[in-house]
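Journal club prep — side note

Before the paper discussion, L.F. wants everyone to see what a predicted structure for a comparable chain looks like in token form. Sequence:
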Amino acid sequence: MASADDKSFDDINVTPMVDLYLVLLLIFIIMTTAGVQGVKVNLPSASSKPATQKLEAPKTQAITIDPAGNLKLNTVPVTLADLESRLAAIKASTPDVPVVVRGDRSNQYQLIMDVLDVLGRVGINQIGLATQPSK
């Protein structure tokens, strides 16, 4: 009969070694996060009042030329002279106002050129010509 002293020790129990590694890892994580500190600076102070100006993009103005040759600024019917005075007032309040020219495909090209000439005299340089994508 074999006694308990004759038992062979061929296998190694790794559970205590894994426990030791986990404890060391936990200590390393705690010490690393505790050792990281930010640099102290004197931060500037800001006003507690809300901003008075709204930071908005300028509203796009739309000039529409219908098939009959009538002009509309946004939805208000205008003449070329009225268009120039209204655009000059808008340009004075918002210097970089964008304008979109929407002309019907059956319009005479001269009327669109007259509108572009008014835009040039007023000094508006952000001009878009609205088109429809081809099918």
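L.F.'s comment for the group: DSSP finds three helices and five strands in the chain. Keep this in mind when we get to the figures.
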